[in-house]
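Need residues for this backbone.
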């Protein structure tokens, strides 16, 4: 049976601090969902890399795990990518990189989830977009296939990196219905937050790429047209 290696380094912060990024959450949800499937056409192995020994084994899932006790830092990752250490350690046939980029020895054996290509269109220093412009496109050209979450992101990847459209699959993100679901009693929420009229809700952050400035401008334009909804921002 073929072996799929999933790089789960993005979930490590969850088991260190209880906090996790959006990319880390999608990775965690992915492996938790795959673990529920009774008959997969391939074997799954989880790969992690850090000195703390935290990784796939912390998930409690039934998948086999491989952990490499070396810092997950750029200088080490570049060195590891020069020799087939991951291939020797795991014996994988195909690797999934669910967090945009990784230094790898055999990119042609990788499927990469590129969550978006906004770093090709705008620069945010806090997210090291200038570096991403240099390292991500070469990996996208060399990897076996690309997954992204929307047709808009696919179009951005094609346009900014000159990738063949057939090399990209759009798989929209799912939703955890255990966490996100309609409230049974909306009056409790309305009373708690003193909501007495319709509202627009944005759950986001203040990162430039989220375009909160455009959201507020659009809201003000609607307000001038006598649309009397509130605008609620959850950060």
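Answer:
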């Amino acid at each position: 049976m073929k072996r799929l290696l999933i790089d789960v380094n993005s979930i490590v912060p969850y088991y260190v601090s209880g906090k996790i990024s959006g990319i880390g959450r999608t990775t965690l949800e992915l492996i938790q969902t795959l673990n529920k499937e009774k008959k997969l056409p391939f074997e799954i192995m989880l790969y992690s890399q850090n000195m703390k020994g935290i990784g796939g084994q912390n998930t409690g899932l039934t998948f086999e795990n491989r952990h490499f006790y070396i810092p997950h830092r750029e200088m080490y990752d570049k060195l590891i990518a020069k020799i087939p250490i991951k291939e020797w350690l795991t014996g994988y046939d195909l690797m999934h990189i669910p967090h945009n980029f990784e230094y790898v020895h055999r990119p042609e054996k990788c499927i990469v989830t590129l969550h978006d290509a906004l770093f090709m269109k705008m620069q945010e220093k806090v997210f090291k977009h200038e570096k991403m412009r240099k390292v991500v496109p070469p990996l996208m050209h060399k990897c076996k296939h690309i997954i992204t979450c929307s047709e808009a992101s696919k179009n951005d990847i094609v346009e900014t990196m000159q990738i063949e459209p057939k090399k990209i699959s759009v798989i929209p993100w799912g939703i955890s219905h255990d966490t996100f679901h309609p409230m049974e009693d909306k009056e409790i929420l309305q009373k708690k937050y003193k909501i007495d009229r319709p509202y627009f809700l944005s759950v986001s952050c203040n990162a430039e790429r989220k375009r909160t400035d455009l959201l507020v401008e659009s809201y003000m334009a609607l307000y001038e047209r006598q649309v009397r909804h509130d605008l609620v921002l959850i950060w």
